[in-house]
């Protein structure tokens, strides 16, 4: 009886020792490197974040256009710095998993959270293009994949084997670096928008001042520019809303020569692609119905300002109609004068007369 009791106690002690040995295993990075391997979905995850990090860093730099950020360097720096940070996080995450660092899962989660939040911001703000890497559908897919990868890191048995939960550790240094990754872009974003708000106030004051200018009977202004109505033309104006912004649209006409529309805006992008965007937006829908022929295209100087232009000829019921489209930029004020003119080429002097009369301040 005594022997059975002793045997039972020994068995109980043995079970207790096994339990302690299983729950109190002390892992090390070296032990995990030799006893675990990265493969399957975890390998694909590390490859995916590396590729995604490279795209996030390279794309904002390769496609940078200051005009897209209202020529504000702080706003322009937000996308670039965020992309660089995401690449850095991706590279370190791969390194941490490879070396079995205690903070590997932490930085893996941070990367997918950054992907999720940046793409949510893009979708909410509406700052997406119809094509390319910034399309809405691509951003939406990135949000979905962010959720999928976050759940994968939380539930994957392989991730648990490679970086066991009892081994995981996040240091104050990790949290400090993460704080910098968040604070710097947010700070630049806030500064950038504060600068834009200040610039809007300054421009509003300048427009109010320009409207006070005493004009000749044949002059017109919208507060942004002053121009002279070409001889023999009549001029009317109306307020139109373009993407939520009110713009004064002027219309000139002469029944023997032609007609046209003009307005002024703030823009300093003199690239061919920006000109083409304007041209497409101002193109009359009926133009495609008629034969079109390019007559001239280029840039010229008018009163020291760069003027981009394109002239096309359209055959309308046997009559040649010319469309003359101009963007007249003023570098000092950051303004652009847009003119879209149609005539039968009886006389085109009115176009030069109009452009040469434009004053930006």
* Element pattern in H and E: HHHHHHHHEEEEEHEEEEH
Q: Helical amount among residues, as a percent range?
A: 40-55%
Strand percentage? 15-25%
What's the helix count?
Answer: 10
Q: For the largest beta sheet, what order do the strands appear in spatially?
A: 3-4-5-9-8-7-6
| First-last Cα distance | 111 Å
Task: Identify low-pLDDT runs.
Answer: 1-10, 12-23
Global structural class: alpha+beta
Main β-sheet description: 7 strands, antiparallel
Q: What gyration radius follows from the Cα positions, in whole Å?
A: 32 Å
The total count of strands amounts to: 9
The whole-number mean of residue pLDDT values reads: 86
Query: Which term fits the overall shape?
Result: elongated
Oligomer: single chain
């Amino acid at each position: 009886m005594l022997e059975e009791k002793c045997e039972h106690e020994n068995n109980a002690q043995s079970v207790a020792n096994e339990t302690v040995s299983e729950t109190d295993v002390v892992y090390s990075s070296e032990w995990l490197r030799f006893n675990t391997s990265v493969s399957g979905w975890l390998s694909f995850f590390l490859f995916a974040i590396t590729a995604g990090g490279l795209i996030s860093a390279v794309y904002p730099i390769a496609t940078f256009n200051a005009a897209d950020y209202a020529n504000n360097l702080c706003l322009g720096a937000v996308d670039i710095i965020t992309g660089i940070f995401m690449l850095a996080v991706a590279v370190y995450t791969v390194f941490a998993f490879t070396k079995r660092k205690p903070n590997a899962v932490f930085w893996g989660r941070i990367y997918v959270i950054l992907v999720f939040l940046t793409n949510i911001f893009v979708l909410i703000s509406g700052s997406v293009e119809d094509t390319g890497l910034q399309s809405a559908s691509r951003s939406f897919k990135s949000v979905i994949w962010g959720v999928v990868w976050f759940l994968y890191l939380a539930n994957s048995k392989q991730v648990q084997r490679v970086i066991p939960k009892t081994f995981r550790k996040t240091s104050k240094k990790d949290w400090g670096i993460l704080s910098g990754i968040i604070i710097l872009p947010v700070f630049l974003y806030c500064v950038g928008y504060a600068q834009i708000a200040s610039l809007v106030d300054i421009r509003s004051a300048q427009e109010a001042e320009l409207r006070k200018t005493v004009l000749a009977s044949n002059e017109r202004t919208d507060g942004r520019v002053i121009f002279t109505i070409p001889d023999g033309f009549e001029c009317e104006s109306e307020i139109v809303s373009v993407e939520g912004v009110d713009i004064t649209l002027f219309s000139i006409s002469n029944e023997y020569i032609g007609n046209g529309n003009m307005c002024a805006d703030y823009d300093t992008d003199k690239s061919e692609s920006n000109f083409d965007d304007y041209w497409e937006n101002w193109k009359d829908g009926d133009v495609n119905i008629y034969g079109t022929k390019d007559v001239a295209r280029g840039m010229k100087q008018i009163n020291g300002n760069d003027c981009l232009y394109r002239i096309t000829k359209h055959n309308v019921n046997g009559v040649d109609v010319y469309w003359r489209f101009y963007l007249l930029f003023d570098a000092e004020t950051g303004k652009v004068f847009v003119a879209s003119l149609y005539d039968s080429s009886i006389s085109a002097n009115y176009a030069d007369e109009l452009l040469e009369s434009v004053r930006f301040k």
